[in-house]
Design brief:
The complex is a heterodimer of chains A (509) and B (125).
Chain A lengths: L7 H28 L10 H28 L2 H17 L5 H15 L2 E10 L4 E8 L3 H6 L1 E3 L3 H9 L4 E2 H6 L3 H13 L4 E7 L2 E10 L8 H76 L9 H28 L7 E3 L1 H18 L2 E7 L6 E3 L1 H19 L3 E10 L4 E8 L27 H11 L3 E7 L3 E9 L2 H5 L17
Parallel strand pairs in A: 8-10
Antiparallel strand pairs in A: 1-2, 1-6, 2-3, 4-5, 5-6, 7-9, 10-11, 11-13, 12-13
Chain B lengths: L2 E6 L3 H13 L2 E6 L2 H11 L3 E5 L7 H11 L4 E6 L4 H9 L4 E4 L4 H16 L3
Helix pairs in contact in B: 2-3
The chains are: A alpha+beta (509), B alpha/beta (125).
């Protein structure tokens, strides 16, 4: 398929050739009778004859000469552009970074040809579509959002036509209106009037799509020839960079899955250990605590001495504390094997706040909650979410001591698709040198605490693919920022069945 | 009528202090140390409420629970567990356990719960 377009340059060229030929013809017809005094040359048909001869003989050389002249004196900018682009192509040959290549291509292309938009699309084998690697003159959002699925009309057409440059106008005119409509949509999506496919050994490795500032801009055959040359020069660079990128990706995935596997095996081992320990420790604890409780709650016996009673109470309390450690360890190691459901974070937060409300009011702690009205439900295990809130809040209550403020914010970041929990307090703060230790297991500043709260919180957060960090200033307060991503499953059924927060668990403590 | 309670646990000491606690509160108490013994005792002693440990040698708590509930669907069974694993608890609830409590036990809560179950029985629920 080839497209012949009458550009101003072509028209100018033809007119100039015509003028020169006409001038030569007239000159010959006028001068020859003077030079050669023959009666035949005065014949009225002679000028027509000489004109015809000159047109036939001199057309080709004159045209070549006019073209050269024009290129040299009027269109030298374009040759400069071509040189710049070919230089770029040779620069790219030594580059293996796809992003850098894409940026260079679109920016140079856009600048030297004075284009409105230019974009390089590369295949994404995972999604089976083409994504924008870099774009010139596009908005950031557009370049992030634009994808070209493998079965779009434009890509189908490219596979049919091969390495030819696609020009929007003429192609659309050659199609039925339905096909043209579908194809126009693809051109619009790419904000392009022209598309140069990049082929390497019959494989489509990219597309350069560009649009001009003025709708009148046209390119001629020579330009298209150059575009094809340019495409064949940069295609191998893009291809190589794509391969390097894919290899890196595979490598990362491999490493990820390996570390996940290690983590999983580790957790399995810890779970077995924790379950074993819990069983072996909870039974003796039950006996110690039980016997103390029997003594405390004896009926009909004489009143216990106050110090004995105090000791027995301490025994009961401390056994519970010891049991808490193993329980938390077990919870940490069990992973996310608990049942998951659509959880209203707000509801879980309120339940947790209710647990703390009494203690907080005694300590004159004001708790402020601020919840994003757009907060979606979150697919998770209720117990784990409750654990997160409880640990953050208990920590804050402890940090404040008496009189102060705790604020809990639940935010939804639609763009990044994540839920953010921010828990800040006006407590005593964390010394800078301890900031990186707060999430370590068994790190605590309290005598009564185990030091697993924040550790477990961090583990649970990581299990949901989230992150947690802390900002703190001594004497001013601390702020824990926890971000949980909404996974693909989250989007699938945003408003599914009501989460039964108080599931059928009647736990006794 | 005396309230009857069967305590099943492979830890003899646990059975002992629970026995003395409940006998102090006018219960008739029987004790078993494994699932098979428990099932036999259920037939002979006909308790109102069974406190059933989950982890036991031989016939474990869940299997014993299944057998008890098959034969005496109205008998109240409270599971006692040292390890609070989600699956076991769900399994127990599915098999018809009436409640579960975790070790170390709060005797105050346990007494109240046993009392509740007996009241439920009296009402014929």
């Amino acid at each position: 398929m080839s497209f012949h377009i009458k550009t101003p340059k072509t028209i100018l060229k033809k007119v100039l050739v015509g003028l020169v030929l006409f001038f030569l013809g007239s000159l010959a017809a006028y001068l020859l009778p003077f030079l050669i005094p023959s009666a035949r040359l005065r014949h009225p048909f002679f000028p027509i004859l000489i004109m015809t001869v000159i047109f036939v003989v001199a057309y080709k050389p004159i045209e070549r000469w006019v073209k050269k002249f024009l290129e040299k004196y009027f269109f030298h900018k374009k040759t400069f552009a071509q040189m710049a682009l070919m230089d770029l192509a040779s620069d790219l040959a030594v580059n293996l970074d796809l992003q850098e290549i894409a940026n260079l291509v679109v920016n140079t292309f856009g600048e030297v040809l004075h284009l409105k938009t230019a974009a390089l699309l590369v295949p994404d084998p995972l999604q089976n579509n083409f994504e924008v690697a870099s774009a010139h003159g596009w908005t950031l959002a557009a370049s992030k959002k634009t994808h070209l699925a493998a079965d779009t009309p434009l890509l189908k057409l490219v596979h049919q036509t091969g390495p030819h440059v696609l020009v929007r106008g003429p192609i659309l005119q050659s199609l039925t209106w339905q096909e043209a409509n579908a194809l126009a949509r693809d051109f619009d999506a790419l904000q392009a009037g022209w598309v140069i496919p990049l082929f390497v050994k019959g494989e489509l490795v990219g597309l350069v799509a560009f649009g001009a500032l003025s709708p009148d801009t046209v390119f001629d055959q020579a330009d298209f020839h150059f575009f094809r040359e340019f495409a064949s020069a940069i295609a191998p660079c893009v291809h190589n960079a794509l391969i390097v990128k894919r290899l890196k990706q595979f490598n990362n995935e491999l490493q990820d899955s390996q570390s996940q596997w290690v983590q999983k095996t580790k957790l399995n081992a810890i779970e077995k250990l924790a379950a074993g320990i819990a069983h072996e420790i909870h039974n003796p604890l039950a006996i110690i605590s039980g016997k103390a409780q029997v003594l405390l709650m004896q009926k009909g016996a004489k009143q216990l001495e106050p110090n004995v009673q105090e000791s027995l109470n301490a025994i009961v309390k401390q056994t519970r504390r010891a049991a808490d450690i193993t329980r938390k360890l077990l919870m940490y190691s069990q992973g996310s094997r608990g049942p998951q459901e659509w959880v209203s974070l707000e509801k879980v937060l309120d339940e947790t706040l209710a647990l703390l409300a009494y203690q907080a009011s005694l300590d004159k702690i004001e708790i402020i909650r601020d919840i994003d009205p757009e907060l979606p439900r979150y697919y998770a295990n209720v117990q784990e979410i409750r654990e997160i809130f409880l640990n953050l809040l208990l920590n804050a209550v402890e940090a404040v001591g008496t009189e102060g403020k705790i604020s809990v914010e639940l935010k939804y970041h639609r763009d990044e698709e994540l839920v953010e929990i921010v828990c800040s307090d006006t407590g005593k703060g964390i010394p800078a040198e301890h900031l990186d230790k707060v999430f370590n297991p068994f790190y605590t500043t309290r005598h009564e605490a185990v030091g697993l709260g924040l550790f477990v919180t961090k583990q649970v957060t990581h299990r949901y693919g989230g992150s947690i960090r802390v900002e703190s200033q001594e004497g001013v307060g601390s702020m824990f920022i926890l971000q949980l991503p909404c996974a693909a499953a989250q989007k699938a059924g945003g408003e599914k069945e009501e989460a039964s927060i108080l599931s059928n668990q009647r736990t006794a403590r | 009528m005396m309230k009857k309670l069967l305590i099943v646990d492979d830890e003899v000491e646990i059975c002992e202090f629970l026995k003395s606690f409940f006998e102090d509160r006018d219960y008739r108490v029987a004790v078993a140390h494994d699932g098979v013994m428990a099932f036999e005792q259920v037939g002979i002693f006909k308790p109102d409420v069974v406190l059933l440990d989950i982890q036991m040698p031989g016939l474990d708590g869940l299997q014993a629970l299944k057998k008890i509930k098959e034969k005496y669907p109205k008998m109240k069974v409270i599971m006692v567990t040292a390890v609070e694993t989600q699956e076991k608890i769900e399994e127990a609830m599915r098999l018809g356990a009436d409640n579960y409590i975790t070790k170390p036990l709060s005797l105050e809560y346990l007494e109240k719960d046993v009392q509740d179950k007996i009241e439920l029985l009296a009402k014929g629920v």
